[in-house]
Amino acid sequence: MATIKDVARRAGVSVGTVSNVMSGAAAVKDSMRARVEQAIKDLDFHPNHAARSLKSRRTHTLGMVISDITNPFFPLLVRGAEDAALKRGYLLNIFNTDDQVEREQSIFAVLRARCADGILAVVAPSVGPPAHLQETMGAGIPLVCLDRIPPELSVDSVVIDNVRGSVICIRHLIAMGHRRISIVSGSARLQTARDRLSGYCQGLSEAGIPFDPALVREGDFRVESGYRLAKELCLSNPRPTALFVANGTMGMGAVRAVQEIGLRCPDDVAVVVFDDVPGSDLFRPRLTVVSQPAYQIGFQGAELLIQRIMGEIASKTPVSIVLQGELKIRESTNGARPRAGTAEDAGVVRSQ
User: Fold this and answer.
1) pLDDT digits (tens, 9 = 90+) for 122-169
2) Domain count of the chain?
3) Which pTM value belongs to this model?
4) Co-location of 127 and 24 in the same domain
5) Higher local confidence (pLDDT), 3 or 216
6) Does 29 share its domain with 142?
7) Is there a domain that residue 131 lies in?
8) DSSP string, 240-281
9) What's the pLDDT tens digit per position in 233-277?
10) Shared-domain flag, residues 255 and 304
């Protein structure tokens, strides 16, 4: 088995130069880098990461904790983080919490025990500052929160502007003539959901439309709650002429509910969803959405985390990166003007 000394001898450079090429810790001339990389390839050299970890006190592994592996938003986020990590020589270990704080606590304990160099986290809903996150940061392990920022915790983060994304959805619906607009929101324990509800309220206020709590339902960002709550709203009397659904998985459930009870979209009820759903082109009508840059959230989050690990960010002040969503207008809103009427007027079949 080849050693780092063999690589250095074959490339005609020092062992330190080989180490710098592999770690990226120092600049190396292009000609030397090319010789080293060719020598590594010729000798099929694989560094002993365990030995390097003992010396550097780094494992070159990152933990990534996400809340719901079944949510189509997260695979793209994970892909972005993985691409950024591999580019910098790090491996990503991925864990799923199912939005359970207890499970998240156990995962963080494992990552601390295994000496992960840093952690990316989409945190589970909580009512206060999560002690396991504070403990992790107190142990000197860098943490970057993605998509969601936990309450009362000063931490690096990469998120989307949820308030603005919701406002542009409501503005679009109002521009289409809608005034009785419902929202299927997420759990109020999540800042993400609270911000999207805030944007909904702001959009209504801009147009002089009074807030009506009867048009608000709180879900849990999962398909079943979107289905159940959208069905409840569409069977109300008078029903809303438009639904704003606060995430993609609930949006899928909401569309199923609208179709099952016999309403036409957008003629009877328009639907706009916060987040583009992979495969949404298969839906009819095609959904109007605010598309989130999921890949970029993951990529920039991992890059920020590695910069913290490598000491490339000098300031201890938390870095907050806020990305913007994009409104994509499609068939579920871009149709007929809203038509007033009851559930019975729309030919609703109540028994399922």
Assistant:
1) 999 887 778 999 999 999 999 999 999 988 889 999 999 999 999 999
2) 3
3) 0.77
4) no
5) 216
6) no
7) yes
8) PSEEEESSHHHHHHHHHHHHHTT--TTTT-EEEEESPPTTGG
9) 999 999 999 999 999 999 999 999 999 999 999 999 999 999 887
10) no
Tokens 């993605």, located at residue: 146
Residues 45, 267: Cα–Cα separation, whole Å: 64
Phi, psi of 250 (to 5 degrees): -65, -30
What 3 state SS string does 80-94 have? HHHHHHHHCCCEEEE
- As given in the structure block, the two tokens for residue 341 are 């009427």
- Rounded distance between C-alpha atoms, residue 72 and residue 95, angstroms: 16
Query: Could you tell me if 69 and 138 lie in one domain?
Result: yes
Q: Do residues 263 and 346 touch, judged by C-beta distance below 8 A?
A: yes
In which region does residue 243 sit, left (phi positive, over 0), alpha (psi from -120 to 50) or beta (all else)? beta
Write out the residue range of the structural domain in which residue 76 sits. Answer: 58-160+293-323
Percent over 70 (pLDDT), the chain: 89
Residue 62's region, left for phi above 0, alpha for psi from -120 to 50, else beta, is beta
